[in-house]
Every structure is written in C-alpha cells, then in structure tokens.
Batch of 4 targets.
Target 1
Amino acid sequence: MVFNIEDITKFREGNRLEAKLASGGLPSSLWETYSAFANTDGGLILLGVKEKKDGSFEIAGVENPDSLIKSFWDTVNNQNKVSINILLNKHVYAKEIDDKNVVFIEVPRADRQLRPVYIGKDILSGTYHRNGEGDYHCTKEEVSEFFRDASVLSMDTKILTEMDESVFCQDTIKSYRNVFNNTHINHVWESLDNTDFLRKIGAMGFSKETGTLHPTAAGLLMFGYEYEIVREFPLYFLDYQEKYDDAIRWTDRIVSSSGEWSGNIFDFFFKIATKLTADIKRPFKLEGFFRVDDTNVHKAVREALVNTLVNADYYGRQGLVVQKYPNKFVFANPGSFRIPLNEAFDGGTSDPRNATILKMFAMLDIGERAGSGIPGIIATWEKEFKMKPEYVQSFSPSRVKTFLNLNDLQFAKTSDNVQENVRENADVQENVLDNVQEKDRRKIILDLLRKDNTISIREIAEKLQMATKTIQRDFDKLKVKNIIRRVGADKGGHWEIIADNGE
C-alpha cells in the first residue's frame, strides 16, 4: 500500500483512507474500519489526525504512540475482540510529522479464505465493508457470500445430489460438442458418450454420498434448462438488452426465463456474442478457405462477456445483465471481485468464482485462463479508443459493473445502421463464396457428414462461415450426382453417403 505522506493535510477520507483523532486512546470505531478495510480492498488508518469540516486533515498527534500501538496489538490479537489478526509488524508504525506523532495502520485486504473479518463474537452484527467514506454493516446475504467465496474449491464444483442427467438440454450438449470437436480435431474425447464426456469436462461428478454421478453446479449452469437451474439458484436470471432508441426501453432483448430457449449460460453466450459485436467495424480477409474478420476489439468484448459469466455469484440478487448502447457496453454480475482490483488489472493472478465454467469455455478457445483477460481488455481499449474500461464495485447487494465505452468511429448508432451493416456483411460474404472452390467445399461437407450424419445444413453453414443458401446448393448438387441422399424426414432423419467419386 503506497501513500505519499509528504503533505498529509492534502489527504481526504475515501474508500481506502480513514483518519481518527485518538485523543483518548484507541477509538472504538477503529475496529469497524479494520473489519471494513479487511473485507473490501484494504486501506490506511491514521491515528492522531483530525478531519476538518471541509474534509481536509489537520495533524493533532498522539501523546504516547508506543503505548497506543501496544494497545492496538493486544486487542487485534484477542479473538474475543477481533476474529483474526491479518497484520504483520511492518503494518503498524509511528511517524513524526511537524513535531507531532502520527500512528499508521496499514490494513491489507484479507485473503478470501479468511473473510469475513469481524469484531466481537457475533459474525452478523460484527462484519463490515467499506463503501465510499464510511464503514457499513454487512447484510446477512453479504456474509453468506463471504462464506461461499472462502471455500478452497471453486463454487461451481458443488455436486448436486438431488439432480440427474435429465436436467441437461441435449441440444446444448450437442452444440458444445460440435464446437469442441471443431476446435480439437480427432481429440480422444470425440468418441466418448455424453455422460463420460460431461464427466471429463467437469459437468458431472461422482458423489460418495449416493455412489453415483450427478450434475455439478457448473454443468447445470452451462447445460441445464432454466427451470432446472432455478431449483438450485432461485435468483438466477440472464438478461441481454440493446438500447438504440431512448424513446423505447430496448430495441432487442433476450432473457433466460422466456421459455423460448434453454436459458443456460452456454446458449446465452452464443446468442448474444455476435449481437454484441455485429456492428463494430471489422476488416475483411481470407486465410485459405475461411473468412477471418476478428479484431482485438471483438475479442475484448467476448472476453468481458466471459469474465461476467464466470465471475458471477449465481446465488446473488439482481441477476446478470448485459447492455449494448450506441456508445458503450455494460456488463453487470452479482458478486464482488475475489481478488484486489489492482491485482486483477496487473494480470498474472486468476481466481474466478466459477473456475470449472471458465475451463469449459477455455476448451473452446474462449476466455483467458492465466489471469490476463482484464489486462488484455484494458490494453485493447487504451490502444483503440484512447480510454480505459471502468470497473465499478458496489455492495448491498454485491455487484460488479464493467463499462466499455466506444467512440463514433467504431460503433453504429442506430438500429438502421446495424441492419445495414448486417446486410453489407452478408453481401460481402456471398461474394467471397464465389471465390471458394466448390470441389474443396464439398469435400469438407462430406467429411462433416461422415463424422455426424445428423448435422443440419444450417450447422454446416455456421461451421464454414458460409451463407446457408450456398451450402444448400452444394447439397442439391451432391444429391443430383447421387453422392448423398436423405434418409427419413427433415427432422429426425439423417444423411447417407452413397458414393465418393472424387468429390
């Protein structure tokens, strides 16, 4: 903790600084601040400093700093007074300023395994957090969050013994496995049945209590139906909003509770990831067969979305909300940061609330696993927009908001512009298709049919980043040449390769 104390009179109380006169010994409010700083982001307590009416500081000094420091150590080490001492000798010291003694107490943020830090014997009445310039009692809900975060294991490893595999949406699992197989060609897990595959990725776990496999919290959130998810997470809610017109509440909205789709976080990610970045300017180029038009801005927006999903406390209130405005993105999730903000900004330290979910996304090459996600977003925004993202943490209830602001050159401002961009992208993509060798394209289609003969034309188009009508034309030609045929109905049937004549 670094503070410039050359001119202490310029200090002002804030989220990490508290001044106390301490003229009659240790003030009782000192311990509320100790608890608050330890449970939030740490801070500096000054004893022998008076706060004036204008908010500035005046050095008053303390008479006997050594006696005051001894009294502090006696109390902080008394578990009847304070739940735990998280300080070292170097954190408490006296300095002479303008011929007066000031005691400095540097309180670090407590490791999550040690929180909540509370005073007295009643954890509910003795737990505080820092919000602005004051120390506030934590609610019962916030104390419960501390206990959930204190576990050595990631929150989403919990095995849900009252549930079985029927809570999963099979379409979601199929979609996940398609992306996984496309990302990991010929992976050894490709031949596994769904149960074994889900166990490998952490979506199911063995319970010693029941002697059988059950979904994990990660598996339920990632692959479950919304009505099953809320059995474990009653306050679970995902909300995506596009707001292009101030005259109406939103121009597009997707919520997990609509009943029109699964409502799980995997499908939510893929439903909104493209919408979020659809109208950000992008280059156009080809790498071999595939169109490549991703930019660092697109990647940063997806990273912010993944961060929001994997760091959310799904037991918390107000749900997870993603908003797209003409000039900014806003990502909000229940739950506080599990590491100090400065460590998150510096990178190299990763402590996601839902580490298994992060691993599941990382297996698809989505999301960072080495603590470099936030620094990457910051670096991109500084380079592209000459500004930093904003991260705001609030309490009662605990919540983190991420603001990614945009400028006029990078973002379309109206829904009409968005639709025009979509049409332009479709036209450009259609032109590119003419430059791709049909023969090569059909070879890829046949390879995909050999791996999954139930795959749809739309799914193949998505894999190849092609227009659906182009893939439909390829299928029509393959059928005319008696290379493939459809067996059964469009829904529930499959494709059969009749002959391979060099296609």
Target 2
Amino acid sequence: MALGPLMVDLDGPVLEPAEAELLAHPMVGGVILFARNFVDVAQLSQLTSQIHEIRQPRLLIAVDQEGGRVQRFREGFTQLPPARRFGAQYDEDPELARISAETSGWLIGSELRSVGVDFSFAPVLDLDTGHSKVIGDRAYHSAPETVAELARCVMRGLRDAGAAAVGKHFPGHGTAIEDSHLQVVQDHRSMAEFRLNDLIPFERLIHFGLPAVMLSHVVAPQVDSHPAGLSPYWHSEVLRGELGFSGAAFSDDVNMAGAGSGRTPERALRALRAGCDMVLACNDRPGVEAVLEQHGDWKTDPVVSARLMRLHGRGQLDRLQLLGSARYRSAVEQMAVLEPELALDLGDDVPA
C-alpha cells in the first residue's frame, strides 16, 4: 500500500480504535502530533510505535519542533532557542552561528528519531521583516542569504540525525501582516520582489537537496489569486519549474481560515489538484472523514509515493545511548548558551 496524500491529527495521547481505523485508510499517509498528544517520553514512544504498526509502508509521523515559541514536546526534550537567536549570533560570529545552527538541527532530529518521530516541519525559511507577528523570531534573519546559510546548516544537522528537513512557508510568510490561522492573508508585492527576497532561501536549499517544502496560505494578488498551497501557478510554474524542486510538497493545514472558501473536502481537493503531495487536515475529524468518503478512490502517482517515502526517518536511535553521549551533552550546552525563550503564544494544537 502506498502512502496516501492526507496527513491527519489525533485527539489525545492515546491512539483510539476509531483513529487506528482512520489511519489504515489508503488515502491517509501521515500523522502530525501536537502538544495534546504528548505526556512524556515513554508515552510518546509507545504512541509512535502503535502508529507505525498499523500498516506498511509505515505512516509518516511529523511535528512542529522548531524551538522558541513552537516546540510541541518539552518535558524530556531540550528547550531550544528561537531561530532569531542564531541570526543574532551570526551578526557577531558567523562561524559560531553556523556551528550552533547545525547543532540545533542535529539535536532536533536526534531527539525526534529517538522517540519514533520521522521529522519536524523545519527549518523556517521566512524572512524576519518585522511585519509578521506569527513569524517574528521564528525567522533566522532579515537577510535572505543569511537565512539560507543558517537553514542549510540546520538541514545538514537534521540529515546527520536521520531526519528530513521541510522548508516553510513557501513562497514566504515574513512580510504578510495577517495570521493565516485566523484570516485570509495577502501580500501585495510583485513577483520580482519575491524573487529578490523571499524565494532566495528556498532556491538555495533546493540546490542543496531540500527533501520537502510546506507551502503557505499567503495570497499574492499581483502574482496569483489563490493561496500559494492551493495554486497551480506557485506549484508548477515557480516551485517545480523555475526553482527545479523535486522533493515532497506539503500544504499547510487546509482547515485554516487562510485556505479560503469552501469546507475541508473542497480545500483538500484543490490543494491536491494544485500539486501538493500531502495535505494537512487538522482539528476537523468530520471534515477528514468527508474527504475519505468523497475522494477515497484518489490514486497516488508513483513519483509522489517515492517523494514521500524518502521522508521516513533513518535509523532508530536508542534514547538512553543518545542522552549519555558526549555529543548530546555538548549540543545541549550549546543551546543553553543561547537562552531560549519559552513564550507559548502560537497555540500548541494547530500547525505552525
């Protein structure tokens, strides 16, 4: 059975029988976990093991584990600094910042792999332009080349730990003022401005083999009338065509207000037809069930299946060995120096 094109959520820390049945549906291909699914390390390991036992090839398991404001798993995990701290460090000592960024990627990936999670939706490739509160310090820097350089180091660390990198939020969410969780987001800049700024980090990381991208719900009226993740233009002409991206493309949660008109089934279908390989549909179980009922005969392209299969985590780290290793202890010390901020103002039960 191939991996299906839907990534869904779970209600709590225990996999219920009805949820296991849902995850066995051929149109489902992955699970995104939130803070509500986490109690402690032992419980999380058991949950991921149960998810992976449901079918073969095993379902993808993802989480938003960026650091700073966006870190779903906390107790038993390293408290990570927001991305902007690496950018500030870069302004003072670029080489040290590169080392810190790579270390953070390795630490994220290693801790997730030790509990059976395949990958985090990271790194954030948006620019910190000072406009977007929902992005803000989640961005590494305001300069696109600096964002690209630090994110490349994070990607290298994730890869070393056996986890894929997912760059987000294409084509850039850092300038738009609105929050796509709550409303339709518009960015009135021209395509030339996107090319000169926001697209640069994506272009650079794609060149270095970025495995996956998450598309935003940002609408750029001067470029296209649809939210980017539901736009054939942004998918085919820009991401796949102009930038030559050959990895997996995720939508942001189609249940967000920013996804535009229609209910979850209509939005999901629009995202798939636009070019998404996997669509996130969260916090709307009736909507997910309607998608399965209305589009349950959806046929996944073999090329898409191959893209998604490459996102499975490599290796299963033994957690006790990881925690006892000199490399891990050193990595934790490096992150502590950057003094993470623990503000939780994004909400832990929605995709970030």
Target 3
Amino acid sequence: MSYAPWFSITASRFQRGEYEAAAEAAQKVFQANPYWSSAHFLLAATHAKLGRLEAARSAAARVLELQPGFTIGETCAAFDIHPSLAEPLSEALGMAGLPG
C-alpha cells in the first residue's frame, strides 16, 4: 500500500512544478505497484514535463495496455483533481500521447 502516499507526494510535487522530484516519487509509485495504470500516467506526465518524450510515450503506452479505455478527462474526474493540477497534468499527458 506504499504506492498511495507516493502517489500523493508525486501529485503535490508535480503541482508545484518540481518535476524532477515528482519523477523520483512517481518511480516509487511504479516500484510499489507496477500494474497500477496510475503509476504509469504519473511517470508519463513527469517525463513529458522534463522533456523526456520517449520515456513519456513508453509510460503512456503502458497505461493503455493496463487500461485500454483510459482518457485524461475521465481520470481527472475520477480522482477529482483540482484544476490547478488537472491543467498541467492534462497538458503533459497529451504530450505523452494519451487521449483527452
């Protein structure tokens, strides 16, 4: 269950624009639960913001393998993500190639 706190840490660091720290925290989410699609969308978003587009696209592809119907909008709604985080997250996930 350690992935849940790391998810929150990743989101807060991402929201503050601390993308390298967010990427490190997202890696811990992934390590704790590599079959959770949210771990991969966090990796995709942080990599996209850091300009690591190949890594972002690879993580995005894994999101779609684990959750074929994934959309950015539905995920933001499901997690009830505040617009201050949803907007940069949506932008980054779009850069990674995930559907809106």
Target 4
Amino acid sequence: MSKVVIIDDEFLARSMVKEYLKKHPQLEIVAECGDGFEGLKAIQEHQPDLIFLDIQMPKISGFEMLELVENPPAVVFATAFDEYAIKAFEAHAIDYLLKPFNQERLDKAVAKFLSQTRTASDNTKDLLNDAQLPGSNSRIVVKNGSKIKIIPVQEVLYLEAADDFVKIFTKEGYYLKNKTMSFFESFLSADMFVRSHRSFIVNIQEITRIDPYEKDGHVAILKNGAKINVSRNGYGKLKVVLGL
C-alpha cells in the first residue's frame, strides 16, 4: 500500500481529493495539510510515496516546500494554474489536476503514479531544477536547522559556490541551498545580480568599488568589507550593468 499526503490550503479541495481516493484502496491517506509548513512536517514524519500538492498557497508555495524535502516523493499537482503555466513542469511531475477536476481525471493521475518507471525522487528533483513560477524569484526559501527561513532577494549580499551547495550570504550570515550557481544565475534578476566569477554571484547594490587583482582579474569590495572575485568575463558584465 502506498502512503499519500494531501497539501492544499482549500478545505473543499482536500475533501474532494479524499473522496475521489476512496476508489483506490491501494492508496492510504496518512495526512492532510493546509499549508506548506504543515506539509513539510507531514512528509518528514510519514515519508509518503505520493503527495497531492497545491502550488499557490500562503506562507510558502508548493515548489518552495518541495525544495526543502531531502528525498521528495512523487507529486501530483492540484492547481488552478492554466495549462500554459503547467507545461513548464508537466514533463517531470507525475501529473497535474487542473481545478476543478472530476473522478475520472484523478483516476488517470493515480494510474500514472502506479505505472511510473523512474523513481519519484528523480522525477521531482528534475521538476524543481526546470520549473519556476512567475514572480517566484523575489525570495529564496531555505532550511535553517529545523526552521524555515524566507530571504527576500534584496537582502542577499552575494552567493558563493560550495561543492553541491550554494552559500547565500546576508547580513545575518550565510545559508546553504542545494542548488547550482547556474540555477541562481537564471533565477535572480539580471538587473540586480551579476555572476562575477564562476564561484560568485554578487548583488550590484552592495558593491562599493572594483579593484584590479592579479593579471586580468579584479576584486569587488562590498559594503560589509567582503571581497568577491571578478573574472575578466565577469568584469565585462559588471561594466555593462554599472554603466562603467
């Protein structure tokens, strides 16, 4: 039997999924949650095989919640987003249910889950690497111990590559995110952040000056005194953005 968690801020939507899942005795509902914080706790506690997940929820979105899960389960989205927005992640989610949906549509999603060949973790990790919601680049959600921290991007001073993680530096210190520098380079606004070096992305509002450093290289000095490597290519990007 496969364990299921339902995560949706709408009570009626959760009730509908529960009612439709009665037709599938091989699926056991172990929890239902009204927001992403509750959903994260339920996933950690129950280790479900499948979640039915709303995308746009208060506090943190469905995507942001998934990013905090170490071994994410299979996902079926139940969402009010139109098909155009869904296509960005359609290839990797098990399925999506466009609200309002009926019993037959949910049955098809369950059939896809039961017949999947790739592991749920692979599917969901690919989904998180490829998909972004419109407007989602205004904040970064990280896990700090047992707590969830929401960082507005304007509070980010710079980012630094750290093996399989990225260090996100703020005035409070740094936080680790299991993403790539390439992801953040495309995720963050090019008007505010520049990849100055293969290992650094810098908030241009924090730069006080740029000094020459070794051969063709430079170093950016930030307001807090941090020194950020600037490659020749990165220096060219900074000159354009800063109007130098």
